[in-house]
Amino acid sequence: MLASQLVSHLVLTVIQILFGVFINGIIVIVNGTDLIKQRKLIPLDLLVSCLAICRMGIQLALFYINLALLSLITPPQFTEKLVVFTFVNDLGLWLATWLSAYYCTKIATVAHPLLFWLKTKISKLVPWLILASLLYACGTSAVHVKYKWVFYGEDFLDLFFPNITAPIEVTPTLQLAFLFAEFALPLFIFLISSVLLIFSLGRHAWQVRNTWTGPRNPSTHVHVRAFLSILSFLALYLCHYLIVALIFFQIFKLRSFLFLFCTFVVGSYHSVHSMTLILGNPKMKQNAKALLLLGKCRQ
């Protein structure tokens, strides 16, 4: 890679990391302030706060990965960070999945007994879902450590685990099986909840539009905004999965421009979606503005 490209990628990565930590930090500070004032945190804020903390960890882990890819740190310093990245990445995917499921159960109006049951139980289930996600992420991290020769291609192994040899031949089918086992369930839950929510919001907006005869109904704007927010969430989530698959199978050569671009997109997902969470939540948006104004006044 040319020196100019290396410097440009490093600068963009630093900006991305700082922006991601800043955006997710706002979520943590705003919800943390509410926790101190009210001595409690509603389940949705708890879930979003855990997701924001996790994403700050992902941003820092991605920074270490980029330093290793650019040969700015040596692999022995990095091996543990790769395991940490696996943990926070899987945890972040599950928390984002539960966030989509939470929105679906609270907003969707699909007539189904399971959905009715979840509407009354989802708030109480949130702490247990977070705990289950932590345990799942610990389990997948342990599997990654034990079977690293399956999850990482030859280029990755040569760079990060130079002394390891694969006990059996690693085939694309075997890699696909491991990838499917790790990511299929959260992807399936996310797709089902997102599609149900988009369908429900779209149907409701259409009904309101056809039945409302007076001035423009304010609720229509709210539902359209929620519809666009979930749609963008779905697009970002699927894009993240696609990029992870490209990195996993090393479609692009390690340290190439396209490979580094993929790592940049992965980091951007965690920042952009957190920003949409702030902008899509009036209370969060208002508190974030107040926090920024307070910071300006103290300068």
From TrEMBL:
InterPro entries: TAS2R. It holds the Pfam family TAS2R. GO terms for cellular component: membrane. The keyword Transmembrane helix applies. The chain crosses the membrane at residues 6-30, 42-73, 93-118, 125-145, 176-199, 226-251, 257-279. One of its GO terms (molecular function) is G protein-coupled receptor activity. Keywords: G-protein coupled receptor, Glycoprotein, Membrane, Receptor, Sensory transduction, Taste, Transducer, Transmembrane, Transmembrane helix. Coiled coil: none annotated. It comes from the Eukaryota. Its main location: membrane. It is a multi-pass membrane protein. It is found in: Membrane. Belongs to the G-protein coupled receptor T2R family. This is Taste receptor type 2. It comes from Muntiacus reevesi (Reeves' muntjac).
